[in-house]
Amino acid sequence: MRQRLQFESAWDKTIATRDREKIKKAFHGQLPQLNDGIHFSYLWKAKNHHNDLLITVLIHNRTKSILHLKNTSISYTEHEQMTVTGHFDVPCDIGAYTTMPWTFIFTDKSNTQCTPDYQIDNL
Q1: What is the pLDDT of residues 36-82, one digit of tens each?
Q2: Sign of the CA dihedral 74, 79, 82, 85?
């Protein structure tokens, strides 16, 4: 099955051309290394005006099923040290064999000590 890149509708309308091109380039560069399953590929990080950590990733659904991320525990690891874990909802489903960019916002309030369902690695 062929993997496709899809932007959530709000992203599709508002993303800067430069960022869209960076995402497309990362998507095509990562495809050859992906096995079946669910993968979170780190793209970049930022901080907002509240000093929250914003982690932008590509979510790769390399399965035959639709991916629903509801109350999902996700950790962010930087240089092999777990930095933060939080619970997240992605408000749209990610289709089978679909990759979608997404930004997770880790706040002080979202930090949890639970075992993550998925991990984002920034090596």
Answers
A1: 999 999 999 999 999 999 999 999 999 999 999 999 999 999 987 76
A2: negative
Residue 86 CB burial class (10 angstroms; 0-12, 13-18, ≥19): buried
Say which residues have a Cβ less than 8 Å from residue 80's Cβ, sequence separation at least 6: 121, 123
Statement: residue 109 has pLDDT above 80: no
**SS3 assignment, position 12:** helix
What are the structure tokens assigned to 94, written together? 């990610």
Q: In what order do the strands lie in the sheet with 72-78?
A: 4-5, 98-106, 53-62, 37-47, 118-122, 72-78, 81-88
Cβ atoms within 10 Å, residue 85: 20
Amino acid at 38: I
Domain definitions of the chain by residue range: 4-122
Distance CA 72, CA 116 (A): 8
Length of the chain as a residue count: 123
| Cβ atoms 109, 15 nearer than 8 A | no
